[in-house]
Task: inverse folding
């Protein structure tokens, strides 16, 4: 049973570019959440997708957008990259249920560096 | 801005020591509290999901308690082992989900 997978593992972009990160949830899970972890900080919640819709969003600008596909996989898109977007981006999946009492399973993350 | 604070920021103990650390969170609009263990170069691993005031959960040598009225949760590790070395994160779920910055535990053999 594959856990949560993310691609790519590492990515280097320059300011102003756009990036797409991908996540496949754990088998049997239909909810995907995205987090940004900057150096020295805890993960910051970006948004959560369920039934192909954004269910909740953290305090991130519109440059951060996402999508969920019918197979429950998800993408995180960041436009007009800034140096401050350099971080580890984590994806977590969970089963449908009471929204925040489900155990979340995390992927290994994508390390994005913006030069 | 929701303040979720973890203390201490880092901790060094000897193998066999028991240890504990704290997660403090707002006492209003509480919905759930999650604890995670994050080893270097691995994915965060869920330890506990706690929802009720007075909850106590245990997994092997690790246990956690929850006090929603005063806004804190303790994580205890009994008889620490080098493999317990990791960053321990709590996540408060109220109107939104907020992680603490973690406690980095190092267990020396």
Result:
């Amino acid at each position: 049973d594959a856990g949560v997978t993310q691609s790519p593992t590492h990515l280097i972009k320059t300011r102003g570019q756009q990036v797409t990160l991908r996540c496949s949830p754990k088998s049997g899970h239909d909810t995907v959440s995205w987090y940004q972890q900057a150096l020295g900080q805890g993960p910051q919640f970006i948004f959560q997708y369920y039934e192909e819709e954004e269910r909740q969003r953290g305090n991130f600008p519109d440059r951060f957008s996402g999508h969920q596909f019918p197979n429950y996989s998800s993408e995180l898109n960041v436009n007009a990259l800034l140096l401050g977007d350099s971080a580890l981006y984590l994806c977590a999946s969970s089963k449908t249920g009471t929204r925040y009492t489900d155990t979340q399973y995390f992927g290994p993350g994508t390390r994005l560096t913006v030069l | 801005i929701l303040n979720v604070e973890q203390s201490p920021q880092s901790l060094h103990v000897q193998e066999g020591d028991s240890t504990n650390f704290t997660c403090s969170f707002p006492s209003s609009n509480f919905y759930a509290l999650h604890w995670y263990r994050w080893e270097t170069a691995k994915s965060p691993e869920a330890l506990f999901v706690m929802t009720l005031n007075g909850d106590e959960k245990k997994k092997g040598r690790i246990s956690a308690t929850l006090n929603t009225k005063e806004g804190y949760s303790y994580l205890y590790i009994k008889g620490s082992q080098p493999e317990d070395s990791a960053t321990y994160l709590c996540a408060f779920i109220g109107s939104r989900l907020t992680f603490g910055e973690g406690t980095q535990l190092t267990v020396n053999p």
User: Anything to note?
Assistant: Chain A touches chain B at residues 3-4, 33, 35, 40-45, 56, 58, 90, 92, 100-109 (CB under 8 Å).
